[in-house]
Design goal:
heterodimer; A: 226 residues; mainly alpha; Rna Polymerase Sigma Factor, Chain: A; Arc Repressor Mutant, subunit A; elongated; B: 176 residues; 6 helices
Chain lengths: 226, 176
């Protein structure tokens, strides 16, 4: 049994990371020179992550595919202007974020504006979200309920700043680290942490306000009964 | 619980966020270090913040799933769109230059005709000004007057007078 020291293991990982980065730079240079298979290789490597970035901001499947496609098309035609000073992924995620904001601007859904408050039924469904659960739903009924819950949580998120909402989803749902969020959105890491912290507080504040509203209406209903 | 102290709590807020990140990476509940746990148990603000982290995580996990993987045809779709866009750009380029190419061809043709006409005119002008006749038309003139040699043009007035005198002498001799 070979015992590998922590330092050696860490050094090995660092070397592996550097090799991967060097290989990627090579692929990018080849793609810039017009090598289409090289670009296809970059596309295959990064498409999942781009989907995650776009999904974190847009949160609608049909929009995600279209915008992700647009990201890669735009990256292809802008590739010659990429100077390799940053990682290719950083550059690509910035394109993804900008495409998302442009898409939302065009769709005019930057803020979901609802004319009426949520109904009591919707509030009750929101209350049904188990504070301890992490969404492991299995049955078709659960799937339908999940869709409704998604819509309800969307409404809560709509009361936050758009970028803060995107950061929360990217962090908690898509699994991005604080560093990755900072790179994608062009924000300092500490700023990301502070904004995430405050966005959570705001989200819970909105959630509690809804809960209070439901509790009050329940009380009134009870009072209103003959 | 103690009152919220903004300056000290700010540091703990970031540490709470770090703890949340570690929990998210491991897919576990948030675990606090000893000193952080001690602070949270005494600070109402940080205690609420920790609760907010927990509730927000639950809400988001209940509301959303991670974005699904791209379909296996996604790469092909993207490359097809890229190819179509390249062809469109190439066609747009030729559409832009085509009228100019057509105009250039016409200008070249007209220029050629003009050059030919000017050349012909320049040639005929040079022939009439020197009198050196090598054309067919002037050869016919030689045949009409075979016995009479055409004299070269006189260069000066004296030569004109001399030629008149010589001609009159020749005529007088012929008359005798």
């Amino acid at each position: 049994m070979i015992n590998v020291s922590h330092k050696e293991e860490k050094g090995g990982r660092t070397e592996a990371v550097e090799n991967a980065a060097a290989q990627e730079r090579q692929l990018v240079r080849r793609a810039q020179a017009g090598d289409v298979p090289a670009y296809e290789a970059l596309l295959a490597k990064h498409q999942q992550r781009v989907f995650s970035v776009v999904g974190g901001i847009l949160r609608r499947r049909e929009d995600v595919e279209d915008v992700a496609q647009q990201v890669f098309v735009k990256a292809y035609f802008s590739l010659k202007r990429f100077d390799l000073r940053s990682a290719f992924s950083t550059w690509l995620y910035k394109i993804a974020v900008n495409e998302c904001w442009d898409y939302l601007r065009k769709k005019k859904v930057r803020k979901l504006v609802y004319e009426a408050d949520m109904s009591d039924e919707q509030n009750r469904q929101l209350l049904a979200v188990n504070e301890q659960s992490f969404g492991a739903l299995r049955s078709p009924e659960d799937a339908a309920r999940r869709v409704e819950q998604q819509q309800l949580v969307e409404r809560l998120l709509s009361e936050l700043d758009e970028q803060d909402a995107a950061m929360l989803v990217m962090k908690e749902v898509e699994g991005f680290s604080v560093e990755e969020i900072g790179e994608s959105l062009g924000i300092n890491v500490n700023t990301v942490k502070v904004r995430l912290f405050r966005a959570r507080g705001k989200l819970v504040e909105v959630y509690r306000r809804r809960m209070k509203g439901t509790t009050t209406s329940k009380g009134k209903k009870a009072d209103g009964n003959p | 619980m103690t009152k919220h102290n903004e300056s000290s709590c700010e540091n703990f807020e970031l540490r709470l966020e770090d703890a949340a990140e570690v929990a998210a990476e491991r897919g576990e509940s948030i675990a606090l270090s000893t000193d952080l746990s001690a602070h949270v148990s005494t600070c109402a603000h940080c205690s609420e913040s920790l609760e907010a982290i927990s509730i927000s995580r639950s809400l988001l996990h209940a509301g959303f799933e991670p974005t699904a993987s791209p379909s296996p045809f996604f790469t092909k779709r993207v490359m097809a769109v890229i190819r179509a866009e390249e062809e469109r750009q190439a066609a747009q380029g030729s559409i832009f230059w085509s009228p100019l190419q057509h105009l250039a061809a016409r200008i070249a043709m007209v220029s050629g005709v003009v050059v030919m006409v000017l050349s012909a005119y320049a040639y005929s002008s040079s022939v009439s000004s020197t009198g050196v006749d090598v054309s067919g038309q002037n050869a016919a003139a030689y045949e009409l007057v075979p016995h009479q040699q055409l004299d070269p043009q006189p260069q000066s007035k004296d030569e004109v007078l001399m030629s008149l005198v010589e001609r009159s002498n020749v005529e007088r001799n012929n008359a005798r």
